[in-house]
Amino acid sequence: MRPLATLAALAVLAVPLPANAQDAEAGRDLFRQNCVACHGPQAGGNGPMAEILAVPTPNLRLLAQGNGGRFPLYRVAARIDGRDPLLAHGGPMPLFGSAFEGEDVALKTEAGQPILTSRPIADLLAFLELIQE
Ligand code: HEC
Whose Cα sits closest to atom 3 in ligand 1? Predict the structure, then answer.
């Protein structure tokens, strides 16, 4: 084996398994604390604040449905952590950036690419993935 390929193989082994890394229960708590005001208690997009926002608040249970049946993990992660700025989430100044800091967790996107995010965001993603219709 070429030395570079060996290094790559070792790097892959060092990545924690997503199953161990994510806690959907903790994610649900984070969702209750940070997201229901707009996205609603069942994530259906009908929270008390939704009606005063200028843009419609999406139903977060339909993310997979709108993405050919696969949960769009990368897009959702990027939107929550502010890498992909959204109007209602604060644009260049994310609403949640610092609230969701924590140890780094490696996840696999739906396309199989590894990405790094924080543990709270990984937990939120696990919760959101679980509630897809
Ligand atoms: C202040 C109201 C508000 C809060 C709080 C809020 N959101 Fe949102 N969210 C929105 C609105 C409105 C949109 C629609 C897009 C936009 O901002 O232009 C959106 C979009 C999203 C999207 C993009 C959906 C897609 O199709 O890609 C995701 C994912 C999301 N929110 C997750 C969350 C999570 C998780 C939380 C809690 C950590 C949260 N939001 C908190 C209002 C909010």
Answer: 38
C-alpha torsion angle, residues 124, 92, 116, 7 (rounded to 10): 170
- Which pLDDT tens digit goes with each residue over 60-77? 999 999 999 999 999 999
Residue 59: per-residue pLDDT: 97
Answer whether 58 contacts ligand 1 (Cβ < 6 A): yes
Q: How far is CA 109 from CA 70, 76, 104, 132, in A?
A: 10, 10, 15, 16
What's this model's pTM, rounded to 2 decimal places? 0.84
Spans of the chain, pLDDT less than 50: 12-13, 15-19
Q: Which CATH number fits domain 19-130: 3.30.70, 1.10.1240, 1.10.760, 3.30.420?
A: 1.10.760
| 86 Cβ below 6 A of ligand 1 | yes
Q: Is 54 in the pocket of ligand 1 (CB under 6 A)?
A: no
